[in-house]
């Protein structure tokens, strides 16, 4: 059976997903709400809540592209981290900051990985509908705003420009001092992002702020945590694209994935600079406003 997904739909959703996946505004939430707002063939073609959804197969391809973009951007860091994990396993030691950070990322990824394997289908088919998604998007906005309200101003923030990739080793050394409990707690916040409308990067960044990290380090840790989660989720379902669910849409998947990867790379480049010195408040205001407007609109239609 051949499925329909227009090139325009693939391009718009692909570009938007690449940006929204890393911005704290929920890519899955927008993947549900944008087709619902447009309506017509978009609402029919782009329904992620279907038990066997070709749109889900499309989104899987976009997620893999996002993960690749993150790996490309943080390639120096991942080389250090993977080397650290390898030497830690070989020598049975956890001595360097790279070794410790590697294990913290592994441990932080386990909770959402286990819950995702067991509950992803239920979350998607039950909650990935316009009204629940709009409600969760508004909640996401409240979480971002509350975290900024409670966070005391950091007197050490410098307004000068810093290239995140050049300051990476120093940030990684600070992240390596996290306790195992803190790393697992921050990683576990990603479970909430299984609900469409809750941002994975946003909730993990807030989790880092609650645990005392600076915005720069909290955002960096959320991006590093997101990479294996997104890649594993994509790889797990990538086979769907070679089966019936991918029939007739593989070209569109490649097109959308290319735009998604480019969008994700530009987004992480922007956000690592922006969040070093600026607030999550604009994203919180946007999510709250968009969520409330969408909730009202889809409730009265």
Largest sheet: none
SS summary, helix count: 13
Distance from first to last alpha carbon = 32 Å
Fraction in beta strands: under 5%
Count of DSSP strands: 0
Secondary structural class: mainly alpha
Contiguous uncertain segments of 5+ residues? 155-166
What can be said about this structure in brief?
Helix content is 73%, strand content 0%. It contains 13 helices and no strands.
Overview of the molecule:
This protein has 301 residues and is an all-alpha fold. It is 73% helix and 0% strand. The chain has 13 helices and no strands. It has helices at residues 7-20, 27-38, 41-45, 54-73, 75-91, 97-127, 130-150, 168-175, 180-188, 200-210, 215-237, 250-277, 281-300. The protein starts with 6 loop residues before the first helix and ends with a helix.
Characteristics of this structure?
globular; 301 residues; 13 helices; mainly alpha
Helices and strands in order, then pairings?
Layout: H1 7-20, H2 27-38, H3 41-45, H4 54-73, H5 75-91, H6 97-127, H7 130-150, H8 168-175, H9 180-188, H10 200-210, H11 215-237, H12 250-277, H13 281-300
Helix pairs in contact: 1-2, 1-4, 1-12, 2-7, 4-11, 4-12, 5-6, 6-9, 6-11, 7-10, 7-13, 8-11, 9-10, 10-11, 11-12
